[in-house]
Amino acid sequence: MDLDLAPPTNVGPLRIGMTRHAANTALDSLRDLSAISESDRPGQHIFRPSGLMISIHCVRDMLEAVELGRPSSQTDRVWFQGVDVFALPAREVVRRVGEVTSIEEDPDDDASFIAPDLLLSFWRPFAADDEPEEEQGYYFSSVLLARPGYYDTPAQAAERLQQSS
Description:
Layout: E1 2-6, E2 10-11, E3 14-15, H1 20-29, E4 45-47, E5 53-59, E6 62-69, E7 77-80, E8 83-84, H2 90-98, E9 104-106, E10 109-115, E11 120-123, H3 135-138, E12 142-146, H4 154-164
């Protein structure tokens, strides 16, 4: 299965802003019924047979974010505008996403990156850009798509609210 990241609106059937009930139903639709994982938690996350983890984050009965964890096989892939975010080295993902939008190093974690205009966040536990055999640091481990302002501080949220009114 291929999932397309379409920030800031959706990942496949999971649409930011949908109700928790609708998000639970959409998450369920992504399960492989022939191989249900014992790690699945309805309304929270599922694991596909490839190892792809799909997690939803709801607040006030609304879907605010979707996080995808790197699969261990290529039977499931996650794309952003032609970029396979888990199959390519992290450095290459950053370069190619940077051709489309601004992307910056996370100020709190130099192995991770945020595309703030889209609210895409790419995470890995450490950087190992020159060590392909060190998969956890060479590739991204997860990507998060969220509603605009998801990472805002209270001051930034107030400013965003003022700008939109």
